[in-house]
Amino acid sequence: MRIFKTGDIRNVAVVGHGASGKTSLVDALAFVAGTSKRHGSVKDGTALTDYTADEIERKYSINLALAVAEWMDAKLNLIDTPGYLDFTGEALAGVWAADGAVVVVSATGGVEVGTEKVWDYAEERGVPRMFFVSLMDKEHADFEKVYHQIKDRLTAKVIPVEIPVGEGPDFHGIINLFSKKCHLYKKGTKAGEYDEVDVPPEYQARFDQYSRELIERIAETDDTLLERYLGGEEIGRDEAIRALKTGMARGEIFPLFCGAAELTYGTRALLSKLVELMPSPADRPPLEAQKWGGADKVPVRPDDGGPFAAQVFKTISEPHVGDVTFFRVYAGTVKNGQDVWNAPRAASEKLNHLCVAVGKDRTEVAELHAGDIGVVAKLRDTHTNDTLSARETPIVLPKIPFPEPVITVAVEVKQRGEEDKLSTALHKLHEEDPTFHHEFNAELGQTLLRGLGERHLEIVVGRLARKFGVHALITKPKVAYRETLKGKGEGQGKHKKQTGGRGQYGDCWIRLAPLPRGSGFVFDDQIVGGVIPRQYIPAVERGIVEAAARGPVAGYPVVDFKAELYDGSYHDVDSSEQAFKMAGILAFRNVSQGCRPVLLEPILEITVWTPVDYQGAVMGDISSRRGQILGTEQDGRMIKVKALVPEAELDKYATALHSVTHGRGTYRQKFHVYQETPPEIAHKIADARKKELEEARKE
Ligand SMILES: Nc1nc2c(ncn2[C@@H]2O[C@H](COP(=O)(O)OP(=O)(O)OP(=O)(O)O)[C@@H](O)[C@H]2O)c(=O)[nH]1
Ligand SMILES: [Mg+2]
Fold first, then answer.
1. Which element (helix H / strand E) includes 639?
2. What CA–CA distance (Å, rounded) separates 604 from 408?
3. Protein residue with least CA distance to atom 13, ligand 1
4. Which of 145, 146, 123, 151 is nearest to 133 (CA)?
5. Which pLDDT tens digit goes with each residue over 322-357?
6. Shortest-distance Cα residue to atom 1 of ligand 1
7. Which residues of 669-697 are buried (b: 16+ CB within 10 A; e: fewer)?
8. How many whole angstroms from 79 Cα to the centroid of ligand 1?
9. Considering Cα of 279, then 280, then 282, then 288, what sign does the dihedral take?
10. Which of 482, 484, 461, 412 has the alpha carbon at shortest distance from 648?
11. Which pTM does this prediction carry?
């Protein structure tokens, strides 16, 4: 593979809603450019960038992946990203590593929730964007409708540079407004070849109208151009393209293209426009990095001669290879075999077999220039989001803000004794995928997995089996119930045993009383006159604490109460710490029964974002989950609904919300308070818990 200098590199993320045709487009672009020798297909499992076993089996993208298209003496690093929201972290990382993005919008599906999501990421990151209306040959394709959807729902700054000739099965050509020519494709075209003809007469009126709009919009981004345009002067193609590129860099204009990747229609024009309109890494503003070990900020410029700086934006573990690390060079030139420095981990890494990735294939290269994207296998201590720099100039680049997990499930290993293997494997998977988290919750006795959706966690569990040989089952996460006391009570706990030799004797009297929520446990020692010797008092407290861990209602921990120890008796010979602890246990069990014990359940505060159309459905659903709406307000394009909902009612909420809002709703949750469970529900929970504890005893 050729070596490319910074100015000849274009890093482009291909983003969009699921199944909009991104992977097919990337494959077609690499093939038409000649860089890839075979035109692959998602359906056949041969697409360049859907190469993992999971992707081939499911026929959609899960990981971001790279392809290269060499065109017009430039190298396009194409970053294919998954569209499903469960893998939105990958799309975010792809946009982060790129200097520009192609937003793919299906000519039949139009703007969907995934389109809005990636649009927002790209907006936050401030990368120049262009639109590609894909699947133009599909039944019901509607270019005009999709263009207006983009205009209404994403940005008014979109402007077509191409218009299709025919739509759906009749789609067979594209008119380019810059070249004023029409490309006609023949059935069976292999690599985007076309006949160039004049604009067909029946399209002349549309062509004139769109051309005028295009040139006006471009002129509006540049005062001198605008003046000349208004003065009646003709704006030449090259200067229009230059102005368009500048306008794109400033986020003032977003050109729109169209085509059908599977048929390779429109791919050649798109390749050229990617090279001409997308910025090279040298055109991008410098990044601000943190000097490692100091407070200073240092600018990182895409300068070939500068000190080396790179960031890892993806790690994937491959069978027989181990970890494969994708990184983007931000500054300096890096050579095959070079030693680099991971400052926060104080680790030196050798970039042996420095490669460029094209799908699953890797080609070794001698060097990579500032701005380029490389891969290397078998780094020891480096993970996603780490910065690699030179030892003399250690820095840390701003981290990719991966999204927080939204759903939680529990997992159990199928085979006993595999728990350790499970935890090691989960740890590896988290390193590969920062949007996946796991923990062992001792209170619940469960391993919890957190991620961005059910599909995400199913795939994680699949990888556990495939890559680590750990077979696990997804189960429902338990709810951490609590109990508390609503009334006061007092009574005795007496432990007396006389079995041969030395006996056991402990006797205490306690008062139990409720405390406000969140107070925890308070022990009040009111013993006077030595009725219980000092050394035994802590033992009584320990007994109460132990007994309170299994409350009277359903065996859940009792919280927010006070225990006052006010009387008791002892025996000179038979009393011991152990005996007084038993007395404490008995006292709590006796007294708590009469203190109107109740079950508490965790209440979460959830914030839901939904389009206004589904607001009623979302709120109705919340009410049916015993939820209480706190308020609603407009938040950008969405309505924000805040509510309090019992955690027990939120199982699979992400999936329910997805279906209620047709995929457009999102939510966040946080713990709010423990609250008394309604009695009829408490009974059911107590019954279930009793069974669970019995089962546990049997095992
Ligand atoms: N008719 C037609 N179908 C296409 C075209 N391009 C892709 N498809 C089909 O559309 C479906 C989705 O294509 P993909 O390329 O996998 O879409 P994607 O955007 O990568 O999907 P995700 O990876 O799930 O986000 C596949 O079944 C493709 O065969 C096209 O130009 N015309
Ligand atoms: Mg894909």
1. strand 638-646
2. 14
3. 21
4. 146
5. 889 999 999 999 999 999 999 999 999 999 999 999
6. 138
7. beeeebeebeeeebeebbeebeeeeeeee
8. 16
9. positive
10. 482
11. 0.87
